[in-house]
Each structure stands twice: as structure tokens, then as C-alpha cells.
Amino acid sequence: MAGLRTGSRVGPYRIVGEVGAGGMGVVYRARDTRLGRDVAVKVLAANLARSVDAVRRFELEARAASALDHPNVMTIYDIGTYHGVPYQVSELLQGTTLRECLGAPLPPAKLLDYAVQFAGGLAAAHSKGIVHRDLKPENLFITAEGRLKIIDFGVAKLVGNPAVVPPRQGGSPDPVPDQTQSGVAIGTVGYMSPEQVQGKRADHRADIFAFGAILYEMISGRRAFSGSSPFETANAIVRREPPALSSETAPELEEIVRCCLRKAPEQRFESAGDVLDRLTRLRTGPSGGARESGSRSVAGVALETLRGARPRSALGRGWSRKGVRFVSAFAIVAAAAALLIPWRRAPLPPASFQQITFRTGAVWSGRFAPDGQTVLYSAAWDGKPVRVDAVIPGRPESRSLELPAARVLAVSGNGDLALALETNGDLLDYMRAGTLARTSLAGGAPRELLARVYTADWGPGGNELAVVRDFEGRTRLEFPAGNVLYESTGWVSNARVSPAGKIAFIEHPFFGDTRGMVMLASKRDQPRPLTADYGSAMGLAWSPGGDEVWFTAGDTLQSSALRAVSMDGVQRVLLRSAGALNLHDVAPDGRVLLAQEKWRHFIRGRAPDEKQERDFSHLDYSIARELSADGRKLLFFEAGQGGGELFGAYVRRTDGSPPVQVGVGYALSITADGNWALIASTKDPSQLIVVPTGPGESRTLQLPIAAIAEARWFPDGKQVVLTARERAGGPLRVFILELATSKLRLLTEADVRGQEAISKPVSPDGKRVIVRERDGFFIHAVDGSDRSPVPNLAEGEMPIGWSADARSLLVRQPGLPTRVVLLNLQRGTKVAWLELMPPDPAGVSSVPWIHFALAGGGEAYAYSHHQITSELYLVRGVQ
Length: 879
Hints:
mainly beta; Phosphorylase Kinase, domain 1; Transferase(Phosphotransferase), domain 1; 6-stranded antiparallel sheet; about 15% helix
């Protein structure tokens, strides 16, 4: 069914306009012509109307919500069908979700108000035998009047309530099962209970766990459980406790959170009603703050002045009785004065945006010049190499500084530039290292200083440089160069030095991943975190006063916001915008240099016996993993908004047939015959799932390791070369896994850097494996008898697999076009084999993943590449 037009009718409801669309269907604003009120009409997606399970869930959602007559649950008015497609009619909600209110701790009074409403709605649902099972901030709606409502009962579990659950033939209720047919646990990672994560049967106490996780986030402004990936987050839920709450949090409130988040269901609150009782007593108690408003009152301002410090949270430690009596008397006087003196905080003017770049491509770095007006930036436009330009906001044209290809890292007060000269590296474009060089705005050739530098910044006075560089396979923060302050097993970005000599930077726990947290270091103090992990963190600078770190981060690459964090970890949101934001610099007067970015990931390739490439992409972030030996099947996964938090693993034929989802998680490898695939579990990072690409049964392997990083089949399909961490935070190592016995054998003692870009690491005869170690590429004998370096590799070159006769390696060369050569292992000679160039090279700097098949009647290949496009803005009014 096509979208409904304005003015059309669905039963007695006249469509006014579309409100929004999601995976289950479309929601419309409509007018109830019988009762004369505005309503919301949710129509099931036409493609789902043919699914018995989808229709049943759609109906059960309506039955569950309509069974609850409670002010904190969205009201369902009606259900019906339109041209054979089911629809629901509900109250029309205007406001926002709780998710949009988070990112920083909620004000105490608002926090308790929302928590009590939330608990009340949940208690009402549980009293009717309804378990929500997908509670998260996105499913809690805050109306314009401040009313919290629980929404989206689409995966609710309906336990023995005949009024809600229609009986099957035979008369017994048929509750929705705990798992879908694919075996994926119901819920959203980050808010699922341990029993949901482990696929066990869950009851109403799973909702109580989710309540605790959301309450924790309302108090602290950060998630209770997070990790570098969905299955790392799931592992945290099962095995770790959330970080301690602030010392300002009332002990009674912290106790409620801890009781909700206990791992064992029987140790949590018995019911949501018990939680409601505890919160109600806390709100109406002496420290509850029930009458506190979102902004400071006259009494609050005066009290803050008298105390000479920031006012304590209303949820903080109690005052003495004498102090309370004094404060109460003072508040009465101040409140009386407020009735006579009109007082209102003036609204802040909205931020203004001035676009200063207009070409198609990627802005990699930008800094304000010493004059505070000119902007220096590095960008790669229209598929051409990176260049350094200068622009004065208000003038449409940029001018080149006539420097070598480089990224601007820092500008000192006297006009000295720190640059990262582009090299033939093999890293992803957004984390590429270069040669650190120094030059002056006045002119002169850059003087090279250090190799393999990610980022750098001038210290106070402009004499010393803080640098982040690769040193023997480890990422180091040094200030000055040579003086190590911090070493990471992942990578570090955006190191910036404050006027006081403190260094803020982003620690990314996994090499190549944008997930990260803001850290603080100095020459005198040990590095410490200022924030928890964000799903993506890219961009950082000091505030104009040097008392806060401003940074851009969010749950995903496409949902980042401009944020601030103080030295004691207090966060606030400065600016939100659709899509991805990347902070480049902050001027002394508070103007912000900000890029709005769009990240996409594409798959292109050529099927056997075909001359033209095809586009094999599916959704917004398609990542190719491997081709079957005949080149007829491609395994890939979706890692963006379309793939969801758990990611989707797919197989598609290279003849252009639609993709088929074969599982949930990180797709890793497909067998030579194309019949089986490996998927890394999103529920447990130590689980490897073997799934059929056609008929057959899945098999889950529980491995004695902490986390899987990479896996590839041997040609015979009986063994797997596995890259994994034996313990959390430990080094990556390579193992040989026997599928029949699930036994692991260590192949390398050395710490490796990851194997994800090596498409076919195992030789055709199954006797040798290519391994990327910290100091280069080596070929290991599978039986452990030999280890030899890959010969004659130039800087940035990477072996990606074996030739059909195993006498040569296919080697990817950096840059665009991306060339693949055959490297003869005996003679060390190279012969051109393939050249790849995306049809739209703007925002693309390389092709990092190439997969190929050398049998089946012709050479086939598939390749993945990022495309990052951005526009640079000057933003005023951020505070």
C-alpha cells in the first residue's frame, strides 16, 4: 500500500499529514470525524502485512496498550484494517522522547518526577500481566506538558491475561515467545537484562533491570553499560557493574538503582510497585526536591551566593536541621519578594551557522589562524589529493597555501604550523598517520620532525608539541615528544593542550573504531577519563575559558552532538543537529569551527565472466567480508543505521539477486563452497556462530577466550584461523580452531594488529597463513615449523591473499586509484593485476577492503570503501 495522501480516509479518520516512518510502518496525524479530535494512525508496512507474526505482534501491541488505562501509558483508541492492512489509532502525542533529554544529568526535581511517572506506568502494565521487554529512552515519550508515557509495546510479553491475549484453539493463552524464530533475544542492547542477553526466559523483573539502567542514565548522563560493540556491551551487562554514581547522589536513590541492576532476577525489586513506593517516599521526603523547578529561583540564587559555592543537588547529602530552618525562612522571604519583583532568565539566542566550504569532499582538519578570523583547513575535494587552504568567513573563495599534501594539526600564536604530511599509509582515512612537520604562515618549506604521527598540538607559548604517534605498534601520547604520558592498545585522537598545560584527548579502545571516551592528562598527573564510552567520538577542543573540554560524540556516527565536560566530569549538551558533527576548533571569543558530515559505506564488484562492475551495497553502511571460491556468493554485513545496534549479516549472489539475511551480528567468513558462514555473536563476544547460507541448522561455539576480533575459514571448511583476545584488554593473537572439537591452538605468540583487511590469509593448500604482526607481515606455517617475512613490501602495501597457485601474494597498494599487484614470493617481483576506482571518488581516499575469487570460470572481486563528505561551518552563539 502506497503512502496515504492528505485528505484520504482510513475508516472514520481523515489523514492530515505524515508524522514519521519506521521499520514497522508509518504514523499519520489524522482527524477523528466522529468525535472531532486529532489522533495518530499507525499503519503496518505493506510488506509486513503478509507476515502472520508481524500482524500478530501489531495486534498484540494494540491489545496490550489498550488494556492499560493509565496516564503514563500511551492510550490506544481503536484498531482496524484498511485495504487488508492493519492499523492502530492512538492519542496524538506532542513533545519528544526521553532520549533527546539525556546526554547530561537531569535536574533533580525533573529526574524524580519522570522516575515516579515511569514507575507508575510500569507498575500498571505489570499488574495486567504485561511485560514490555524493550524499555529504553526512545520508548519513553515526554509530552509538552511534562507527562511521561510508555510507548511501543510491539514486543511485549503478555502473560496469562485473557482480556489481552486471544486464546488459541483449545482455549489456552498463547503469549509471544521469548525469542524470534531466528533465535535472537528480544530487547535493545544496553538496556537488556542479563537473562535476556543470555537468551533465557525473562519475566517482569527484566523490565525492572531496564528501569534501573534508564534511571542510572537520567542521574549520570551516561549509559550504565557500554562497550566497543553490541556484544561487548552485552558482555558488560552479564559480567560487570556500572561505574559508581556521583558522590552527590542521594544514598537512597543509588540504592534503588543498584537493587534494580542486580544480575540475578530474584535479587531485584519484586515488583515495579515496590520501586514506585520507594521513589514516591524519596520525592516527598525532606531532600526530595519536589518543588524545585528546572531553573534557579530568586531564593536559589541568593542561597548560592550566601554559601559561596555551587548549590548541592536536591538529591545530595542532607543539611543540618539548623541549616534547613535558616534556609526555609530565607526562602519564604525571597519567595515573597519574587511576587513583587518580576524576574525571568532571559532566553539565550539560538546558535547561528555560516557555511564556509562549498565543494564536494571531506574536510579532515581545521584551525583558527592567530588573527582569530582566518580559518586554515585541510580537505580533499572532488576526489583529488588533500590540500591546505585558507578562508576568511564571509568570502566565498578559499585560497591554497601552496603546501605539500598535509593535514593541519595545530597553529601557534606566532603563526607556526604543525602539519601531518601525507604518506602512503594503509590506515583508514579518518585516522591516518603522517610525517609531523613544522612550517610558518610567513612561508618556507616544512621541516620534517617525526614519522607516523596521528595528531599534535602546541603547548603554552608555542615552543613544545604534544604528539600522538605510532611507536613499535603502540599508540603513544608524548609531551613534549619523547616524554610518554600515555600508551594505548587501541588508538588516540584529537590531543589538545590547554593554556594551563593540561592535555585532553580521545581514547579509542579498539584500533580503527570511532568508539571513544574523553581523557585528561598532564606532565604531573596520571591520565584519567572525563566521560564514559560513546558509540562514536570524533572532534575535541578546549572551551574559551579553558575550564571545559568541548567535544562531539554520540551513540553512532550519525547521531553525534556538540558536548562539554568539566574537569570533574559534569557534562552538558551544547548543540544538536541532524547527522554527524565533528568539532575542529574553538576561538577565544567562543566561535566554533564545526563540520557536518555524512558517512556511507559501499560495496562494488564484478561477478565471474562479467566485464562491468555492479553495486552490491544494500543499506547505508554495507561492509563486504568474503566471496565464495566460485565468486557467485558474497558475504557482507550492515553496520549503520539500517543494520541496527545488533548488525545484520547477509549473503547475496553476485548476479544482482536481492540479499538474504542469514543472521545477526558481525559477518566474518564464508566457506569456499558458499554453504556456511561465520558470524561473531552480538550476545557474547566469546561465541562464534556457524550458520548455513541455505538449508541447515546453526551451531554456536562457546570459546575459551574473551573476545573474537576476526575469523576466516580454511579451504577445506574444517578449520578456522581466529584472531582473538584471550583476556579482556589482553593482546590480539592468532589461533587455529578445529571445528569438529572446538579446540584452539595458538599459532602466534606475538601481538598482532588485526587481520580484517586480509581477505584470504590461508594458502590454497591450507599449510600457510599470512599474519600481520606489530612489526610487519609474516607467513607462518600452520604446523608451527616456520615463520618468514613477506618480502619486498613498500610503505603502505598490504598482502590481502594468495594467488591460485600459492606462488604469489595479492598485494594492495595505497591511494586512488587503488592498485592490486601479484608479488612473487621467490623472486620478489611485482606484476599489475587489478586497478579499482569508485565511480564517485569525492570523500574517498582509498579502498581498504578487497575480496576476490580466482576460480569458477573467471576472476571475480568485491571491494568496500568509505565515503565521508563534509561541510565546514562557523558557529556563533554556542554557550
